[in-house]
Design a protein that fits this description.
Chain A is 67% helix and 2% strand. Chain A is an all-alpha fold. The radius of gyration of chain A is 24 Å and the shape is flat. Chain B has a single domain, classed as Rossmann fold (3-Layer(aba) Sandwich), CATH 3.40.50.300. Classes of the chains: A mainly alpha, B alpha/beta. Chain A: Pfam families: CbiQ.
Chain lengths: 256, 265
Amino acid sequence: MGAGHAHRLYRQGDSAVHRLPPHCKLAAVFCFVLVVVCTPRTALWAFGAYALLLAAVAVTARVPIGFLLRRMLIEVPFVAFAFLMPFVVPGEQIQPLGFLPVSVSVPGLWDAWNVLAKATLGVAASVLLAATTELRALLLGLERLRLPPLLVQIATFMIRYGDVVTDEMRRMSVARRSRGFEASGPRHWAVLAKSAGALFIRSYERGERVHLAMLSRGYAGTMPVIDRVTASRAQWTAAAALPLAALLVCLLGWAL
Amino acid sequence: MSGTLAFVPSLDVRGLAYAYPDGHQALFGVDLTVERGERVALLGPNGAGKTTLVLHLNGILTAGAGTVAVAGLPVAKANLAEIRRRVGIVFQDPDDQLFMPTVREDVAFGPAAAGMRGPELEAAVRTALERVGMAEFADRPPHHLSFGQRRRVAVATVLVMEPEILVLDEPSSNLDPASRRELADIVRSLDVTVLMVTHDLPYALELCPRSVVLSEGVIAADAPTGELLADRELMRRHRLELPFGFDPAAAPVTPVTTTRKPGDR
């Protein structure tokens, strides 16, 4: 699909991973994450193996590790509380840095590790998915995986109108500043709130006009499926390689 | 097509009246007949009811009184799907009209909703985009096109349905002169009935041999465009004004067709 459609997360390329049908990749990532979450937290080596698996995918997709790590920073605010766990979870206390009077709890450390490792692996897998699959293709994949059509439609419209609404917001901001308004503190929040309200009304009215245009062209409640994505057995097998390898690691983790 | 009978008008509006749910009456008995292959301009001041009339043509609004028929088929609940295929409305803001992620999918929307699939659909989309000179933009998202290009794609989204009548709402608004001329070339090249709602009187003169004036909810005048624009008294009465320095009598009768293709920039 089109050039210029590229989202910041997407990385143009033509690798085996890029070429896989989107619904195969979605299913693979979903299963991979499930397997990772089911792994016992004490099997440290298993998480290392998962990371290696993901690295192998990244190499196949020719996604540079630096790119991957930068995109993964999105995770930080969500796992911040994991760092608190060693301090707040009750249990046996240790002083990891002997010379400092800081004590942390052992179960807390395990909890933090558990959240951190699993979240990081999940985010890495999602970032890889986003880097190798176009937004539009992802939606086609979700549609193919029988996500409720209404959700897919909403997401489709978000992609289409995200830029239009952002543009409108920018124009309103230019109009405000052209009349000498500069938001500098809480005193101006009322103005910003009113702008947000106006933007909402405008977007809502646009929604009504778009609906009108859709009706005029024969819309009757469902979007016609124009591009049906299909996958061959070989493509499903290729996509399954990641979650199956992970499952093996997971089972070993429970057994050992 | 079922409407190949040349003596059935493309559009037949009789005694159409409509009041909005809030009680405001917009149309007071509109009579309008557009013959097959005609290009007619619908002129009128703001608030005259032009958009209200247009929304009756494909059954978005339902007449309070009177009837609308498209190529003999009355606009009624039972025929809505067919009516909406026959009446292609190009709305004023192409961002409202183009709601799919790519140009190709947008043009495909109408026929796909009607059940067309596969190579047949692809061919129809390609033909429609070629007619407006936008074939090479098929895979682009609409918001990456210029305004003029978006308007042309909007025309393609209804042309692909092979409509009986093409309704253009303010087709020249917000276009730069080159895009405006390109769109005129496209409209002239189409073999389809056109109803053009506009404030752009020179554009009406250039494209439409016949004009009707909608004023205060009724058709106030119906005449060859040149004559109508030259009638100063009538124009003043209905708040219609020509651009400064424009003399309808001096304008070329047959517009100069340029040799450039619509796609040239």
